[in-house]
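> @MW can you paste both from yesterday?
MW: sure, first one:
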Amino acid sequence: MPLSARVTAPAVLLAAAGLTAVTACAPATSVHGARGDARTGTLRVWLFREVDNKPKEAVVREAVAAFTADHRGVKVDVAYIPVDTRAQRIKAAFNDPKSAPDLVEYGNTDTAGYVRDGGLADVTADLATWADAKDTDPAAKRSVTVDGKQYGAPLFVGVRALYYRTDVFRELGLKPPETLDGLAATARTIHKERPGLYGLVVGGAYTYGAMPFVWAHGGDMARRQGRRFVSTLDSAAAKKGIKAYTDLFGSWNCPASKCARMGGNDTVQAFASGKAAMAIGGDFSHRAVENGKAKGAYAVVPLPGVRKGQIAPAFAGGNNLGVLKSSAHRTLAVDLMKSLAGKRTQARLFDAMGFLPTYTDVRREAARRQPFVEPFVRTLAAGAKSVPAAPGWAAVDAGQVLPTMFQEIVSGRRSVDAAAERAARKMNEAFAK
């Protein structure tokens, strides 16, 4: 799941933090097939190491203990790998099955690339008979799906919503905006009355904060055309959304000279440090805000859509668990995947880490017990989206195609039309490889 950094919360009950999307660019590899289906032996598992990993380790140990108690003659070896070296590690695993894990955690934008590289096993039939899977939300299910087949189980999901300063809104007699136009107007009012504050802090490198504006106006990043993807960034609807986002940059709200290079973490930090009255932040941003000057003086609502009563579609980030095609313990690996990604473990991970569950019923219960996550749950329920399930998306991401487009526009180097058309060409070049 591609968010810009991994942030975790303390192991306190239902702390709504701790998610960052992960992206990787795994080069094409030569993958060997499965080496049998042994029902005993040692299963190797690679999970991502969090900033504060001990709560995650405790939950995983509990799930593994229950699994091994039900599977005699089976041991589980769990290794926590650094996020920043995941691409190299997983590429090596695809190339060398003897040293590869049986089960791996991966970012949900990596799915198509890993499937193209032949590294992940098709587990569609295995999940079809799994009771827990029926309550998986559609966005999470799409994150493990390529060409109608499923290549893993969603582990957690995360989305963004609108943080706002309750004290500033109260002092200025404002209410949370109900449309995107209202959001811009509110930002303008705040900056006019409080020149030292960004009305709404935005970032030219904040891709996942900008995407909802495109989707809310009816646009998209790309569409499938036969077996290939084609960029739709240069469509009229997409350009309306791009303009709505880039129009938020300026002396009246967030000057391009200061905001053009900001990413997601920068915008959240600006809000947390008291420099902004509004920001688009994730459920995983809660800890940073709680640790800043805005503590006790903020609230969160879903990012509004184009019309009153609508919620702008948010980017659905998160991580998945997948069985490697080369596993010599396929059946056991699938069973362990179900244990680690099942409802009980996801509920425990939410309690320990703040990771939002991918199951609609488990998530509703989490929101009931912890009201803070309710706006994020509502956002997910309204229909979150993800990036195209294209193997070439990793190259689009690594090439900074979208941030470059936004920065060209807000700096005045290119018009919306010219920048969108250039970005669409770059995307199509990546999709064609």
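MW: second:
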Amino acid sequence: MTTAPTTAAPPVPATPAAGYAPFARTLVVFSITALLATAQLYGLIPLVNTIAADWHTSPTAVTWLMTVYGLGYAAGFLLFGPLSDRYGRRRVIVTGVAATAVATLAVAAAPGLGLGVALRIVQGMTMGAFPPVAMAYVGERIEPRRRLVTVTTMTTGFLAAAVVGQLAAQWLATFGWRVFFVAGAAAFAVAAVALRWAMLPDAPASGASPLDAYRVMPSLLRSPDLRLLYAAVPTVLTAFVAIYTGLQLTGTTGLLGLRASALPVILAIPFLTPRLARVPGPRRAALALAAAAAGTGLIGLLTPGTAVLALLLMLVTAGIAVAAPSLIDTIGSRAGAARGPAISLFTALLFAGASLGPQIAGLLADHGIAPLAFALTVMLAAGSVLTVAARRS
């Protein structure tokens, strides 16, 4: 195996003299914030038809509200991850989440699609201050033996939003779709206060320029240890978002139960982490993506009833929930001293993929769920093959 990139990385801020951060409160506050962050992506799925009717446009056009949020979110990862090296993890996270509260409230007041799209870009970018900076904070401030559990639980929060966000939006839509964003704005305001309370004060500034991290990123993308893994990353959430969006656009019955059925699987993953960790990261990711591919393939092949569809969605969800933290763990460990920029790239690619999901669903779901499911099967299988190849590089 080749060595990790040798390009100089920005200095890692020193661990404070006070020691490691309190595990329990960090875990709880970070996981809830992670859930709130991606709930703003997935929560749009059950609101598509309602917003389209209110704004006198098509449901397919409204899917752009999901796409631009995901793109803004990914851009925020690349912007704020390196900035936090210079200005401090807590300062960047708290400021970003507080700004998201304001942006989310503005989305609730949007009068039409054009302004709604612009505000969703801003909302995604400000929320992008949380994931990569939180991952870096965990790597620096949480005890090493508890880091994988913390990262997996945060990832579970990101994925649980696919269920919780949709369920909450579907319920709040009975009071009007704008209520979902008003409630989100209030939740982000509370989260900003909780994050300031839960996080340790920032260590003294390292003096490194944020540009140092940006200079490292091209070498990470070219690294033989990492480039195949990075190529696999976008497939993870592209498929996950696309399958649920496709079910919404095709008018699948029993969506409330189908969304809820995946939640137990997502919540179980952190408890399985000690056993899953025994399998090397690339192999774990490859097997998980293969399982998700099998699930989407069977959805297209069988055109199943509600009960069987729920089981297949649980298989897809389990695969995604295992693959994402496995890829984070592998990329972070292989990047060495460039862990911070490497994770910023990972999260940017992950949610850039998520932003493509609604557009792929909109393009293929007009012909039924089967063509979409088969396309996603090919995508997930390709991701699995890439991670296998990365293991051998």
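> thanks! The radius of gyration is 20 Å.
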